[in-house]
Amino acid sequence: MPVALITGASLGLGRAVATELARRGWTLVVDARRAGPLDDLVRGLAPCSVDAVSGDVADPAHRTELFEAVQRHGRLDLLVNNASDLGPSPLPHLKDYPLDKLADVFAIDVFAPIALVQLLQPLLVAGAGTIVNISSDAAVEAYEGWGGYGSAKAALDQASAVLAVEEPALNVYAFDPGDMRTAMHQLAFPGEDISDRPAPESVVPALLALVERHPASGRYRARDLEVNTEPANLDTLPAEVSR
Questions:
Q1: Are 112 and 63 in contact (CB under 8 A)?
Q2: How many C-beta atoms lie closer than 10 Å to residue 37's C-beta?
Q3: What sign has the CA pseudo-torsion 151, 235, 24, 2?
Q4: Cis bond leading into 90, ω under 30°?
Q5: pLDDT band with cut points at 50, 70 and 90 for residue 233
Q6: In the annotation, is 95 catalytic?
Q7: What's the rounded Cα separation, in Å, for the pair 64 and 29?
Q8: Concatenated DSSP letters for 31-55?
Q9: Has domain 3-235 been given CATH number 3.40.50.720?
Q10: Both ends of the chain: CA-CA distance in Å?
Q11: Quick one: what percent of the chain has pLDDT higher than 90?
Q12: Angle at 202 between CA 89 and CA 230, to 5 degrees
């Protein structure tokens, strides 16, 4: 069975992806910062082999634990770098952004994904694996208050693009899911009603289209991938570099 490592799997998009892959019979390694929600995820998964490792992806010791968990399975077909840090809520302007908090955002949103790729590269290359780095439209659009999170996701987009050039044996995607009805999105809009946003489950088919059909490495938006779902069309869809 194929093996996937999904970070930030206890909530939102990570949880939705883990649930669908488990339903399809994948072997999973999943992580989240809090053990309780992660245990709740595992209890709700379809019967499958799953290793749940709680911890912070910014912690090198935790990343080593994830590497060891994957290594026990002897292969890695998919790495989904989904764990993200929004930063302070309400979102501050850059002139007021606490630099220690900005460093935390980059540690989780940029440095941790790169560090995991460094650890897992041999296993990924051996299986011609796929890396999906979860991005955001804030990486390519200038929204007031989004300078911290947006700049981190922009850095992750660029890292994904360079990695694709340096590792041609891998499929490397920056995936922009669009707005979703998640706890993190609610933090970005405190006190506002975000019930009109789509559920994370609605964008899982677009993400899995990348995993299953392997178009050219690049940046893709969920809404574009959902337009053309036939393999022939998806193979000719250009990777997006801007919104």
A1: yes
A2: 16
A3: negative
A4: yes
A5: very low
A6: no
A7: 13
A8: EES-HHHHHHHHHHSPS--EEEEES
A9: yes
A10: 35
A11: 86
A12: 135
- The CA-CA-CA angle for residues 107, 135, 30, to 5°, reads 65
pLDDT of residue 232: 36
Confidence of residue 239 (pLDDT cuts 50, 70, 90): low
Alpha carbon distance 90, 65 (integer Å): 33
Among 95, 143, 149, 173, the one annotated catalytic: 149
**Contact indicator for 174, 157 with CB cutoff of 8 Å:** yes
pLDDT score, position 240: 54
What is residue 230's predicted lDDT score, i.e. its pLDDT? 44
Q: What is the DSSP string of 100-143?
A: HHHHHHHIIIIIHHHHHHHHHHHHHHHTT-EEEEE--GGGTS--
* CA–CA separation, 206 and 185 (whole Å): 20
Q: What's the CA gap between 20 and 192, in Å, rounded? A: 29
Answer yes or no: are the C-beta atoms of 182 and 11 closer than 8 Å.
Answer: yes
Let me know if 149 is a catalytic residue: yes
Catalytic residue among 97, 153, 173, 220: 153
Give me the residue spans of the domains in the chain: 3-235
Proportion of the chain above pLDDT 70, given as a percent: 93
Instruction: For the beta carbon of residue 182, count every other beta carbon within 10 angstroms.
Output: 20
Residue that the structure tokens 């780095």 belong to: 133
Tell me the pLDDT tens digit for each residue of 103-116: 999 999 999 999 99
149-187 tens-digit pLDDT: 999 999 999 999 999 999 999 999 999 999 999 888 888
What is the Cα–Cα distance from 227 to 113, expressed in whole angstroms?
A: 29
Distance of CA 76 to the CA centre of its chain: 16
